[in-house]
Design goal:
Elements lengths: L1 H12 L5 H12 L1 E6 L5 E8 L5 E6 L6 E5 L3 E6 L4 H5 L9 E6 L6 E4 L3 H19 L3 H16 L9 H10 L6 H11 L9 H11 L3 H10 L5 E2 L1 H10 L7 H12 L3 H5 L3 E2 H8 L9 H4 L12 E6 L16 H8 L4 E7 L7 E2 L9 E2 H11 L8 E7 L3 H15 L26 E5 L5 H6 L9 E3 L16 E3 L2 H4 L2 E6 L5 H7 L4 E6 H21 L1 E5 L12 H5 L5 E4 L6 H9 L8 E3 L2 H4 L18 E11 L14 E8 L6 E4 L11 E10 L6 E8 L7 E9 L6 E8 L5 E15 L2
Parallel strand pairs: 10-21, 11-14, 14-15, 15-18, 18-19, 19-20, 20-21
Antiparallel strand pairs: 1-2, 1-7, 2-3, 3-4, 5-6, 6-7, 8-9, 10-22, 11-12, 12-13, 16-17, 23-26, 23-30, 24-25, 24-27, 27-28, 29-30
Helix pairs in contact: 1-2, 2-4, 5-6, 7-8, 10-11, 11-13, 15-16, 16-17
Length: 755
C-alpha cells in the first residue's frame, strides 16, 4: 500500500528526509523496468525494486518464472552516470547518456550496466542509490548492529508474517553458523517471548539476539576493572587504558572522549562513567581496532626523494583475467587507481587507422585503444590520492604511432603530464611525492639523457635505436633481449624522471647510473640479486628506482610474494591486481596506512647510503628484536563458507609474520568444533620480530577440514608498526579485500623488547 511505502521511505532511507529524496525512494520501492546491458547484442529487460529493508535490491526477468536475483546496496561502491563504462560506450549511438548508468561493485565483481526508459527514472535510481550508500557510510556502530539484526530477522521470517516461530529460529541459528542444542535454544526463545505468544516479534527478537550475542569474553575484562561490576568510573577506565591499552599521554581527556563518543546512556555520560554497552561499543569501534587510527591517516614525511618510498604498483593493468586469453579493459585501470595504485602499465602496439592499441602482445587477449586508457587515467588518477601516478609504457609501436601516443598524452592529460623537470632547472636528485602532487610521470625509453634534452642537444639524428629490455623476454629470464626499436622524439620528450635502462650490475650502476634511470627485473632475477648481493641491491634502491614484475610463466595472472622485493627496498613491485590471494593481501596491508595514498616511506636504514642493510642477514646490523605475543580470545559472526544447508564451520586462526627471512613465521590456534558464530580460543601465539619496520602481520581464519585443504573464511593484514597493543578487535576482510561486517576476532596484543 502507498501509505506503507511512504512511511518506509521516511523511516528507512532518509536522514533528514527531503521531498525530492522521498520521490526517488518511492520510485525505487514501487519498482522500475530497465534494460540490463552486457554487450551490443545482449540487452534484456529486468524488473528492479528496492526491498523493505532499504538495503537489498531485487530484480528478475519480465518473463514468467520465479527466478530472481538480489544484491546489497552495501556491495555497491559507486554509481556512474551516462556512458561511463565500455559496455555503455559501445551502445552510445542507441541510448542517450541521461538514461544510462553503471553500478560499480566492491572487490572484483563485474559492473552492472543499466538503461532506464526515461532520464527521470534513471535519476531516481542514481540519486536514490547514492543516498542509500551515503546513509550506510555514515551509520554509527549501534545503527549498524540494528541493521544487522533486522537483516537476520527478514532472512529467518520465511512466511513474512513479521513473527518468528521456534522452527524459524532453529533454521536461523544454522544460517548464523550456530550449533546449539535444542533445549538451550528453546530456553533462550522462551525467555525472549515476553508476550508468551509462541513467536518472537520485533523487540522480542532483539532481546533474543542480545542473549545470543552476549560477549562473556568482553564482560570478563569489564568486570576485572569495574569496582561494582556495573560500570567503569572515570578512574576505572583510565586504569584500563593505562594498564591494558598502554595509553601514556592525555589519558584523562581520552577517557572522557571515549565516554562522550561511545556511551549510549545519557545518565552515564552525565556522571562520566561507562556502562558495559559503552565499553563494548568502544572496543568494536575504529579506536578499539588493532590498526592504530592515527596511522590510517596520512602521517609520513612526503618530502623525501621518490626512490625512498614503496609505491603501490600494478602489472599489465589492462587485464581483468589471465595473461593469454583474458579480457583487456579500461576498468582494470579504474579499479587499480581507485585502490590507491600509483604505477600502472600499458603494452602498446600498432593499431588500425593509425590508433595505437593496448593488449598483451602475441596472445589472444582482447584489445583496447591507447587513447581510452589515457582518458581514464586523466579522469581517475587523483580520485584516491593526490600523489603522482607513474605510467609505465612497454612500447612496441612504430615511430608514426608513437607520435600519436605522444599527441594523446599531451592533449588529453594537459598540465597533469610532467614533460619538463620541476621549476625548469636541472635537478640533482629525484623530486618528492609532495613536489609531484597531481602529476603523471611517464616511465619509458628516452633518447639521450635528461641533461641532453634540457640543453636542447637532442636532434633527429638521435632518433635512432634504443635497446628494449621489456617484458616480452620474460619466458627466458637468462637471455637478455637485445632487439632495438626506433623511438620518436615526441614520445621521448614525455619521459623526464623515469628513463628505462637495462641493468648490467650494481657496480656499473654505482659508477654510471643517473638518479632518473630505472631498471626492470623479473621476479627470478630480483631474487637472484637479493640472494647474491642483498646489501648492494638495498643501496642501489636508495639512489634510484627499481621495478619488479611477475614471470611470463605466470599465464594464470598469479602473483609472486612482494615482501621479498620490499625487503631489498624495491619501490615498484608490480602485481596482478585482478588476482586475489595472500600476495594482494600483503600489498593491501602495506598500503592501508598513510592515508591509502599509495606511497609508504621506507625505513631509515634503507634510505641512508651510509648504512649497509642485508635483508638475508639482518642480525649483522645490530638491530634489537621485539617479542610479539598475541592471545586469540574469540571470533564473532564468522561468515559461512559452505552453502550446504546445515553446514557450520570449524574455525581456527593462523597468524603469519611476513618480513625478512629471519622473521618469516606462522602459528595456529586449535580449531573449534561447529561454531562460527562465537568461537572462543584463549590461545596465545608468540613471535620474535627482528626487523619490525619491514614486518607485516596477517590474521587468517580458516574452516578446518581433516580430509582436505582448509577453506578460507576471512583475513586481515597490517604493518607491524601500525599495531595497537592491548584488547583489540580485528575486522575481517573477504578474499577480495572487502569488509564482511560484523565478522571479527577479539585479541590481546603485547609487544616487548627482548633483552
Amino acid at each position: 500500500d502507498v501509505l506503507g511505502i511512504w512511511v518506509r521511505c521516511i523511516t528507512c532511507c532518509l536522514t533528514p528526509p527531503r521531498p525530492l529524496h522521498l520521490l526517488y525512494c518511492l520510485s525505487m520501492f514501487v519498482g522500475t523496468v530497465m534494460r540490463k546491458i552486457k554487450s551490443r547484442t545482449w540487452k534484456k529487460q529486468r524488473y528492479f525494486r528496492l526491498q523493505e529493508d532499504c538495503m537489498t535490491i531485487w530484480y528478475k526477468s519480465k518473463k514468467a518464472g520465479n527466478t530472481h536475483s538480489t544484491f546489497s546496496v552495501g556491495d555497491v561502491e559507486a554509481v556512474r552516470e551516462g556512458h561511463q563504462s565500455e559496455v555503455l560506450l559501445s551502445i552510445a549511438d542507441e541510448f542517450p547518456p541521461d538514461r544510462c548508468f553503471t553500478l560499480v561493485f566492491r572487490g572484483r565483481r563485474g559492473n552492472l550496466d543499466l538503461v532506464a526508459d526515461s532520464s527521470g527514472e534513471a535519476q531516481s535510481w542514481i540519486k536514490g542509490i547514492r543516498k542509500l550508500i551515503d546513509n550506510l557510510e555514515h551509520m554509527g556502530q549501534r545503527e549498524k548492529l540494528d541493521q544487522w539484526i533486522c537483516d537476520w530477522f527478514k532472512k529467518a521470517d520465511k512466511n513474512r508474517d513479521g513473527q518468528m516461530n521456534f522452527k524459524e529460529v532453529q533454521d536461523l541459528l544454522k544460517m548464523m553458523n550456530v550449533d546449539m542444542n535444542e533445549h538451550h535454544a528453546l530456553r533462550l526463545f522462551t525467555t525472549a517471548d515476553k508476550s508468551q505468544s509462541g513467536t518472537l516479534e520485533d523487540d522480542e527478537f532483539v532481546l533474543f539476539y542480545k542473549m545470543l550475542t552476549q560477549r562473556e569474553d568482553v564482560l570478563r575484562v569489564f568486570q576485572e576493572y569495574s569496582g561494582d561490576g556495573q560500570k567503569l568510573t572515570l578512574q576505572d577506565l583510565k586504569d584500563f587504558l593505562r594498564e591494558e591499552q598502554l595509553r601514556e599521554d592525555g589519558v584523562q581527556q581520552y577517557a572522557l572522549k571515549l565516554i562522550e563518543r561511545y556511551e549510549p546512556s545519557d545518565t552515564a555520560r552525565m556522571l562520566q562513567v561507562m556502562t558495559f554497552d559503552g565499553f563494548l561499543m568502544y572496543l568494536t569501534s575504529p579506536e578499539g581496532s588493532i590498526f592504530n587510527p592515527t596511522m590510517v591517516e596520512l602521517y609520513q614525511d612526503m618530502t623525501q626523494p621518490l626512490c625512498h618510498y614503496f609505491i603501490s604498483s600494478s602489472h599489465n593493468t589492462y587485464l581483468l583475467e589471465d595473461q593469454i586469453r583474458g579480457h583487456s579493459s579500461v576498468e582494470g585501470y579504474i579499479r587499480a587507481l581507485k585502490r590507491g595504485c600509483r604505477c600502472v602499465e600499458v603494452d602498446c602496439w600498432d593499431g588500425p587507422n593509425e590508433e595505437p592499441i593496448v593488449y598483451h602482445g602475441h596472445t589472444f587477449t582482447s584489445k583496447i585503444f591507447f587513447k581510452d586508457v589515457v582518458t581514464v587515467l586523466g579522469n581517475y588518477a587523483f580520485k584516491a590520492s593526490q600523489y603522482p601516478v607513474i605510467l609505465s609504457i612497454e612500447n612496441h609501436c612504430s615511430v608514426e604511432q608513437q607520435k600519436v601516443m605522444a599527441q594523446h598524452l599531451t592533449q588529453i592529460l594537459g598540465d597533469k603530464l610532467l614533460k619538463t623537470p620541476l621549476h625548469g632547472k636541472f635537478p640533482i636528485g629525484l623530486p618528492s611525492p609532495e613536489d609531484l602532487k597531481g602529476k603523471i610521470l611517464l616511465k619509458g625509453k628516452k633518447i639521450g639523457g635528461l641533461e641532453d634534452s634540457m640543453n636542447g642537444v637532442v636532434d633527429d639524428s638521435l632518433m635512432g635505436e634504443v635497446s628494449d629490455e621489456e617484458e616480452t623476454a620474460e619466458f627466458n629470464d637468462d637471455h637478455h633481449r637485445n632487439d632495438s626499436i626506433r623511438l620518436s622524439k615526441e614520445l621521448s620528450d614525455c619521459v623526464v624522471y623515469c628513463k628505462s635502462v637495462h641493468f648490467s650490475s650494481f657496480k656499473h650502476s654505482q659508477i654510471h647510473s643517473k638518479f632518473y634511470e630505472i631498471s626492470s627485473f623479473t621476479e627470478s632475477k630480483a631474487r637472484k640479486h637479493i640472494r647474491e648481493a642483498g646489501a648492494e641491491f638495498v643501496l642501489h634502491n636508495a639512489r634510484q628506482l627499481s621495478r619488479v614484475y611477475p614471470s611470463g610463466l605466470r599465464t594464470d595472472s598469479s602473483n609472486f610474494n612482494p615482501q621479498d622485493m620490499w625487503n631489498a627496498g624495491c619501490q615498484i613491485v608490480a602485481l596482478n591486481f585482478q588476482t586475489a590471494g595472500v600476495e594482494m593481501d600483503l600489498n593491501d596491508g602495506l598500503f592501508s596506512q598513510n592515508g591509502h595514498c599509495g606511497y609508504v616511506l621506507k625505513p631509515a636504514f634503507m634510505r641512508n647510503i651510509d648504512e649497509r642493510f642485508d635483508p638475508e642477514n639482518p642480525q649483522n646490523g645490530g638491530y634489537k628484536p621485539l617479542s610479539l605475543s598475541i592471545q586469540v580470545i574469540s571470533g564473532q559472526q564468522l561468515p559461512k563458507v559452505n552453502i550446504k544447508e546445515g553446514s557450520i564451520i570449524d574455525p581456527l586462526v593462523r597468524v603469519e609474520i611476513h618480513g625478512v627471512p629471519l622473521d618469516q613465521a606462522k602459528q595456529e590456534t586449535r580449531y573449534i568444533d561447529n561454531n562460527g558464530f562465537n568461537p572462543v580460543w584463549y590461545d596465545t601465539l608468540q613471535f620474535t620480530i627482528h626487523i619490525p619496520e619491514l614486518a607485516l602481520v596477517r590474521f587468517v581464519v580458516e574452516d578446518y577440514d581433516k580430509t582436505s585443504k582448509n577453506d578460507f573464511v576471512g583475513q586481515f593484514t597490517l604493518p607491524f608498526t601500525c599495531i595497537q597493543p592491548g584488547y583489540r578487535h580485528i575486522h575481517l576482510l573477504s578474499k577480495d579485500g572487502t569488509s564482511i561486517p560484523p565478522s571479527s576476532l577479539f585479541v590481546h596484543v603485547r609487544i616487548t623488547k627482548l633483552t
